[in-house]
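Handout, section 4.2: multi-component inputs.
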Amino acid sequence: MPQTQLPNPIQVAPSPHVAETHSTTRRMMIDVMIGLAPVLVMAVLVFHWYAVVQMGLCVLVCMVTETVCAWIRGRPTPVGDYSAAVTGVILGLSLPWSPWYVGTLASVVAIVLGKVVFGGLGYNIFNPAMVGRAFVMLSFAKELGASAYVLMGARLEILTQQTPLTVAKEAAAGVTIHENLWPLFIGQVNGSPGETSAMALLLGGLYLCLRRSAAWQIPVSMMAAGFVAAELAYWAGLTPYTATYHLLTGSFLFGAFFIATDPVTSPVTPKGHWWFGAGIGVLTIVIRVFSGYPEGVMFAVLLMNATVPLLNRWTIPRPIGGPAPAT
Amino acid sequence: MERLPSPWGGARGPDGRRLPSSNLRSPLIKTSKPTFARGVHPSEHKELAAETPIEVLPIPPRVTIPLLQHLGAICLAKVKPREEVELGEMIAEATAPVSAPIHASISGKCERMTNVTLPNGRHVPAVPIAAAEHQPLAGPGALEEIFGGHWPLGELTSYEPDAIRAAARDAGLVGLGGAAFPTHIKLARNEKKPIDTLLLNGCECEPYLTADDRLMREYPAPIVAGAVLAGQAVGARRVLIAVEDNKPAALRTMREAAAEADVDLVELKTKYPQGGEKQLIGAAVGREVPTGGLPLDVGVVVMNVSTAAALARAVLRGGPLTHRVVSVTGGGIRRPGNLLVPIGTPYQTLIDHCGGLRDEAVRVVAGGPMMGFSLGSLEVPVTKGTSGVTVLSRHELRPAEVTPCVRCGRCVEVCPMRLVPTKLALATRADNPELARRYHIAACIECGCCAYICPARLPLVQLIRVGKVMAK
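Output:
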């Protein structure tokens, strides 16, 4: 009988020796892109070239910045995992209409200060796209205020209207605004290119949750808590919008499905997901109602990002069989 | 099992009690077959060897029998070099309570004691035996002699618990599912912790492996006989056999055999690691074994189906544990199959018998691919706990490149012990036993679901194993 020889080279490693080959980090990022597809389509349908140019610029600058940073750090180029592209798309979709240097600066800050300084993908504390956006919002307060959305004399009629949230901010106290829900649902209102169409956001968000590329608890708890908070504010006469309007306006849904669900900057435990989403939902409404800003999703996400290590620690699940007996 | 499945969807345990809702996969998917919560479903690859009947391996020219084949104390050799031994003769005795004697698996002449490295990396002394001309258990008849013939399923009540335990001990019986815990210790009665259920584990949840499946299909009678005897030994009110629904043929044969005795059968929804005793008890009985505790803390004893068959043989036919069924399978093997082999046969001989390795074979694993140990040498002998040899081709192996953790939480979603594997791995890397304990590292059963599912291909369970030692 032939003597079997060991394969050369033999591989020896600890178990498990097999892996789920369909799930990779790259695949998760591609899922986010697929989930964003309906949002992109609606953005282009509503805002035409404005959306394409702004997004293209952000994606390009994000990917170039990531490559340059990797080169400076002497690391292999990580553009293959598409995470920089995802940051660029989300940033481009969330910025108001702005001069080219604003989008560029926001992208550079998102990648460098939002991600690379912490050690790159997986190590950042704050959502990179929101870091970039917050930086330019504070730096160009005049250009990017509520008036940034209104382009007087634009050929596209929708760009000459105020955003629903600006209308709410400027409304007199105690006034109730009854707006038609349908344009909000479809996305026929002014705003950042990614945030206006609730329909597209729900469609893409549902895909993400079903693919388990996003934790479903976060959007669910964010919407539930936001709804309750907005309803309370409405009954107290603090805001002219009902809770349904609040959920459909601004970047509430965009934030719920695509910004808050960034796995790196959200908790890992199921209970942590609930608290994290609920915190963003409540803070968003609080900022909308009480601060000088018409919109609050960005700051709410950044604030809750900071609580993630604590949330993880407070929501350690009880293992099956209970904690080990003290020895 | 007339009480299963329950028509309104909620899973009920075999005792008719409603199972905790955590035993359901998801509140949205109603399932009538019980299983445990979370876990993974790796590609099974059982088709490679599942349809190949058990074959008797021709007597190898030499076996090397390690003196430690169980969880517990090492045995003391009773034979000298050049001594002639008969098949079934005790060659090493157990000198401690938690230990099991070891018997000659072939007839022949003992050689000088040597050392072997077991798959888990432990070096132990071993007795080599060179085969004699005449062998009592050789040829295709051996299988029939061990497992075939008539098993008096209806008339087992006359056996006393003490006699069953003594037979198990004298036969050197240990758990054949992998952990190799001495069976007579498991069967011991404990006044403070009465046992009400004997649970027979026919899940064989490791991918690829088919040895238990084949045994259940071909020889269900000794398995049921062993289950009844074990149940009598521990004083269990109920004997329950659990089989996963990916083995329909085994379910059929086992159901027929179980009908002859007072034994229940439960069909579980296939998932890994259902064969882990904590998961199995959760799925089939609906009880939660406390961390750091044993099944007997919740009134259950779990036994593997092949152990039960060996117990029946030991009690009813007085045969010591000298042979076992081993799957030789995987994409790197030319002719996958299931072999009845004498303990101590080198893996080399098994692989030779199955046509040798394919060119793309890269890793030889003792056991299955989820928890088995990879080998650096084929000289390693089969022990009582060897359930199979899985040879993986390079297409089946987990990719080696690692990307950073993006905290996606997949490991948390699949962990059958409800742990946070990524944090445990982090605590290990940070050399922080305090953090590891806070995240309940001691509860980890090392099943490998986390490392299997991780999109970043991080060696999670591999790190956690290190961390468990660190946090002790």
